[in-house]
Amino acid sequence: MGNIEIDVWPPGAFQKATLVARTVLTTTSGDLSGARLEISSLVASQVLVGGSRKDVSNLVTQVLDQPEVLKLVRQLAEQRKAGTLVRQRRLVAVSGSHDHTVRVWDPLTGQPIGGALTGHQAEVMCVAVAATRAGSLVAVSGGVDCTLRVWRPMGAPPSGRWTSSELTGHTDRVWSVALGTTSGGQLLAVSGSADGTVRVWDPLALRAVGRPLRGHQGPVQAVATATKRNGELVAISGGHDGTIRVWDPVSGRQLGSTLRGHQDWILSVAAVTSAQRIVVASGGVDRSVRLWDPITARQLGGPLLGHDDWVRSVAACTTSRERVVVVSGGDDGTIRAWDSATGKDIGRPLKSPGGVVAAVSAFPSQDGKFIALSGYFDGTLRVWDPIAGASFGPPITDHASMVRSLAITASPSTH
Length: 415
Hints:
By secondary structure, the chain is α+β, with helices and mostly antiparallel strands. It has helices at 3-7, 13-27, 32-47, 53-64, 67-82; strands at 91-97, 102-106, 111-112, 124-131, 137-143, 148-153, 162-167, 174-181, 187-193, 198-202, 207-208, 220-227, 233-239, 243-247, 259-260, 266-273, 278-284, 289-293, 298-299, 311-318, 324-330, 334-339, 350-351, 357-364, 370-376, 381-385, 390-391, 403-410.
């Protein structure tokens, strides 16, 4: 075997298969005997599509024989034996599209979880998903039909069948939605609309919370939520007026000063809580990504520059090593990852034939790494390892039109 076999594999196959192996081993707590079949299946469907059983077996064998993979297996086995490893939960991704549908899928396999979720009467502009205290999932979507829809799985998550309920109140398209939990354990949804307002909702009770939050001079295209170190929930909004505002979603009060720095419309905001602070990322028409501390109302460093066109979407996550990373995508067709502490690029820009990047999301994995999801104008989705600079499997093609929004969470149940 050895190099003779590697020469006939497609470019990047060994690296992609290694990523598959590391992911599966981590989610199975390093159980090599139980993971090999799943690794082989994923390699056959995502890396060596159409390859022979022998080719798949040879590739998987060489991947698992790597010193770094063997070291990972030993580390996981030791943690499992000591009882200190909590098995990673299955990831669930949700996407919203101009084809009027919401879809649920497994980002590690690229496989759909059930069929398309229908109910919106026009383009779906935004989605959010979160685990509930009761051990289930809830997703919220918003669209051009001026409504939000709350989706609940029928049965243990991740279920392929979901129920849907409608929330009304906005008088123009719903651009953005986010979910967060208060210090008292209440799940809230926050939405931003072209009607210029931010609204807060109880998605489980299916009702509005308080009055619309006003302050932006024009459409509110971006919202996010984050939790302060004392457990209090804050909401963040970005608008076509180029400003970012921070809100107490329970009282409806604006917190602190309005954040200014962008020179044009803000198209996306994301927020994440690290050990030190809340970090807000924003992107917009001025082609920049900016980082903020919403509590002190300060911009963190200078603008992150590199995109050659509008920055349509930003996402952020905190890795297992407390590193805050930001992912951005835009009209130049590239995805970029940034280290929030240094403002420097992580890896190289990622480019796909899908064209304009309309949506990105990010989620931490093991060993301080993370995965990024991207949705494109051509209706495809991709999963990336930004550090390796490689896509994880072929594009996902279930949507019939532009993928406008993405969200990802861990399922409450284990698999």
